[in-house]
Amino acid sequence: MELRTLFAAGLMLALPICAADKPAKPGKWVKMFNGKSLDGWKANENPQAWTVVKEDGKAAIKTSGFRSHLFWMTEECENCEFKADFKVMDGSNSGMYFRTAFGPGFPKGYEAQVNATHRDPVKTGSLYNFHKNLESPTKPGEWGTQWIIAEGNHIIIKSVVKGVEKVITDFVDEKNTFMKGYLALQGHDPNSTTYYRNLMFRKLPAKK
User: Fold this and answer.
1) pTM of the model
2) pLDDT 10s per residue in the chain (208 long)?
3) Are 158 and 146 within 8 A, CB to CB?
4) CA–CA separation, 92 and 73 (whole Å)
5) Under DSSP, is residue 49 helix (H, G, I), strand (E, B) or coil?
6) In the 8-state DSSP scheme, what is residue 131?
7) Strand, coil or helix: what is 47?
8) Cα 146 from Cα 4, distance rounded (Å)
9) CATH fit for domain 5-203, picks 3.20.20.70, 3.40.50.720, 2.60.120.560, 2.40.400.10
10) 92-131 in b/e burial notation, b at 16+ Cβ within 10 A?
């Protein structure tokens, strides 16, 4: 069922998808995952938590078996959009981080929660620690899309499930808590399994 590509041991920085001296132009979507390897990504710990697999016939990034956070090191987000298809399994917990700092443990940054049935009541679409959603838009094992828009201190998190788009979080952070940092995926704990595919980044112009 799965064609595993083992992530190289050690916390290595893979080759970037885009040259570091050629940042994305505002308004242009950039593919973050090439469907073959974890080039451009780096784990903060337990890199064995991350593999490239075939899931439901398409390439995906799988996290399972360890706590770990996988950072996209190609470009940081200041004003940006970040979206991905996800499938979170029963009892599992994950998240999509943005404007986050690379470091060990649970990183400092914003997290758009990914959780359908984990014991944590904060479900998919929440802006963790800032805005709670208590009802998951997807069932465990069901594919959905999470779409994050960060412009200045205005954060929007949308879900798209079976073609239906819904805004779950629309929040203004008056404290400007996190204004720039990396994008990352979360492997929350050893008992959580989550899949991601079609990961996309779009740089937005500076908010006036």
Assistant:
1) 0.87
2) 444 433 333 333 333 333 334 556 668 999 999 999 999 999 999 999 999 999 999 999 999 999 999 999 999 999 999 999 999 999 999 999 999 999 999 999 999 999 999 999 999 999 999 999 999 999 999 999 999 999 999 999 999 999 999 999 999 999 999 999 999 999 999 999 999 999 999 999 987 6
3) yes
4) 25
5) helix
6) B
7) helix
8) 25
9) 2.60.120.560
10) bbbbbbbbbbbeeebbebbbbbbbbbbeeebbbbbbbeeb
Domain ranges within the chain, ordered by starting residue: 5-203
Taking the CA atoms of residue 148, residue 149, residue 150 and residue 155 in that order, the dihedral angle to the nearest 10 degrees is -80
Token output for 188: 């929350």
**Bridge partners (DSSP) listed for residue 80:** 150, 203
Q: Which of 205, 196, 147, 157 is nearest to 23 (CA)?
A: 205
Determine the Cα–Cα distance for residues 3 and 51; give it in Å rounded to an integer: 9
- Cα–Cα separations (whole angstroms), residue 7 to 42, 60, 61, 119, 161: 10, 13, 11, 29, 30
Sign of CA dihedral 88, 83, 65, 135: negative
Closest CA to 161 of 179, 178, 139: 139
Would you say 116 and 139 are in contact if contact means Cβ atoms under 8 Å apart? Answer: yes
Looking up tokens 């470091």 gives 103
Q: In this structure, what are the phi and psi dihedrals at residue 31, rounded to the nearest 5 degrees? A: -75, 130
